[in-house]
Every structure is written in structure tokens, then in C-alpha cells.
Amino acid sequence: MGSWKCGSCLSSLLIPLALWSIIVNILLYFPNGQVSYASSNKLTNYVWYFEGICFSGIMMLIVAAILLVLENDNNYKCCQSENCSKKYMTLLSMIFSALGIAFSGYCLVISALGLLQGPYCRTLDGWEYAFEGTAGRFLTDSSVWIQCLEPAHVVEWNIILFSILIALSGLQVIVCLIRVVIQLSTILCGTYSVIIQPGII
Q: In this predicted model, what pLDDT tens digit does every residue of 54-64 receive, in sequence order?
């Protein structure tokens, strides 16, 4: 019973993480609070992967909702025995937790790539990825950020928001991974007890 309550707490934690991911991803479309760059498609290409909105956001909300339903003690029995039903629900919960790892992992990877690539901005040579060939070295050298003339403060904007997305999706991966470990141990321990009971009797 304790593992189920622990799992329910972890599932509930996924909800605010998903909501924040949606908010942060939406902010990436409006560098420095301006709408014109999104409408003219002058944003880094990685924001169009919808990693925070769809995968670490909406899909994770769906996963969290399903996990909370599966962990409800009043769920319908799928087998004749209560032990069988709990094992089946635990297996389903583990599968959806694994899906959560995939969704949040996708957001983590895309956000990291967006961070390393740098923003799409106007330089003296026109609109380009000014730091694409620096392998992320520009992240620790703020003196080169002035190369981006427009949008204003776009480098800081991208670094902060992509870093937050990485942190949020990373937490989601950790939460889902903990859930998988807990559920896997529940299944294995439950199977072991079923095997040894006939010998005891």
C-alpha cells in the first residue's frame, strides 16, 4: 500500500512540471515579449518541435492522469483475484511511466540541442545562427552575445528558457524512472511471494 501512495505522490508531481513546461515553451515564441518574430518565423528551429508544449506538457499531463487513475484503490478489477488485478494495474502503470520517460526525454534532448545551437538572430551579416559552430562555447562567454542585434536580449532569453525546460524535463525523467523502479520491484516481489506460497502450504 505504501508504494501505491508513493506512486500517487510522484504522479501528482508530474502535473505542475508539465504545466510549467507548457508555459516556458510558449515564452520561447515571444523573445523579449515580442510577437512579431514568431509571426515572421524568425525563431530558432528547435522551438517548432513543440517539446515543452506537446511532449513534456500535454502528453505528460495525460500520462499523469492515467497513472493517478490506475493508482486509485477504487479502480475496477480486471481479474478474479485482487492480487492479479493489482499486478495488472502495476504493469500498466509501469508501461505508462516508461512512456513518460520517452516523452520527457524527447523534450530534454531537443531543449539541449536548442541551447547548444544558440538563437536565430540578426547579426551584421543578416539573420543567422550566430553561434551554431561554437559547440556551445558561447554559453560561458557573454562578451560574444552582442553579435545578436535583434531580438534584444534573445541570447539570454533562449539560455534561460531552454535551461528551465531541460531542468523540468530532467525532473520528469527522474520521477518516471523512480516510478518504474518502484513498480518493477512491486511486480518482482509480488511474483516471488506467489511462487513460494504453495511450498509453504
A: 999 999 999 99
Any idea where the domains of the chain sit in the sequence? Answer: 2-72+81-119+155-200
**CA distance linking residue 63 with residue 198, whole number of Å:** 37
CB-based contact 148:119 (threshold 8 Å): yes
Integer Cα distance of 154 and 148 in angstroms: 7
Q: How many residues does the chain have?
A: 201
Q: How big is the CA angle at 104 (ends 136 and 141), to the nearest 5 degrees? A: 15
**Can you tell me whether residue 129 is helix, strand or coil?**
strand
Residues 193/104, Cβ–Cβ less than 8 Å? no
Output the nine-digit C-alpha cell for 127: 539573420
Side-chain half-sphere of 64: how many Cα atoms within 13 Å?
22
The tens digit of pLDDT for each residue in 138-169 reads 999 999 999 999 999 999 999 999 999 999 99
